[in-house]
Amino acid sequence: MMKTYIVGNWKMNLTIGESSIFLQKLLKKIKPSRGLEIVIAPSFTSLSSLSLQLERNKSKIKLAAQNFYYRDFGAYTGEVSIAQLRGLVSYAIIGHSERRFVFGETNREISQKVAAAIRNGITPILCVGETESQRNFGETVDVLRDEIFGGLSEIDSDDIKKCIIAYEPVWAISSTKAAHIASPDEIADAVKIIRDQLTSVYGEETVAEIPVLFGGSVNPNNAGAYLTVPGVNGLLIGSAGLVSESFASIIETAKKVRE
């Protein structure tokens, strides 16, 4: 049985002190569970301190980078490379809609980051998803295909199993204006598109080993329904992941779904 991934993306929230308090509370609320991978993606400023805190507590919670520069080293003022994050993070979120739309990241840049993560032994979490207008105009298949294969274009087919795909439709993200909650059926349709597209290139046997996560206004009330959607192997959580009680509740739900 494939692992279930619960990934909390903190975005640009929580100070170093607040991050430490969050983790301290979370560690008191949860217990390790086989087959459940818990991942937190804090700001760069908190990665080192949280890594030490996890080590002291002998916790199996993993850390993820929210972003990085694709070059390993060099004269790139203000940038942080994935090579510099080795030893701190196990995962890296790449291609999030906020990176695409706020900062103008292209599929080319995203593919370079995916390749850099693989090169440095870090698991990339490649985010894909359509906007509401693209969805309304029937462009979901085209958008998902372009973002998937655009993001994976720099890696060998043998490395596809080292990737995670996260379906995060822009129209369902809570921070987006007029966002609406995605239904399990809507998610199931999109996840099938993603898996069908991947299968057309990499084959069914390979794609069966690729985790697909869902992200978009996930909270303790809908997490259970989302985790039972066929083809979904975990959740990418935004605002609900900033509160230890709600994040712990989602983790407990994931444990029950796996039982």
Task: Give me a quick take on this structure.
By secondary structure, the chain is α/β, with parallel strands linked by helices. Helix content is 42%, strand content 15%. It has helices spanning 16-29, 44-56, 82-85, 97-101, 107-119, 132-136, 140-151, 184-202, 204-207, 223-227, 244-258; strands spanning 4-9, 36-41, 62-65, 91-94, 123-128, 164-167, 212-215, 234-237.
Please characterize this protein's 3D structure.
The chain has about 260 residues and is an alpha/beta fold. The protein has a single domain, classed as TIM Barrel (Alpha-Beta Barrel). The protein is built from eleven helices and eight strands. The chain has helices at about 15-30, 45-55, 80-85, 95-100, 105-120, 130-135, 140-150, 185-200, 205, 225, 245-259; strands spanning about 5-10, 35-40, 60-65, 90-95, 125-130, 165, 210-215, 235. The chain is globular and about 45 Å long. The model has no long low-confidence stretch (mean pLDDT about 95).
CATH architecture: Alpha-Beta Barrel
- Which percent range describes the beta-strand content? 5-15%
Uncertain runs are: none
Radius of gyration, rounded? 17 Å
Q: How does the overall form come out from the CA principal axes? A: globular
What portion of residues is helical?
40-55%
The name of the CATH topology is: TIM Barrel
Q: Mind telling me the CATH class? A: Alpha Beta
The ordered string of helix (H) and strand (E) elements is EHEHEHEHHEHHEHHEHEH
Structural class assignment: alpha/beta
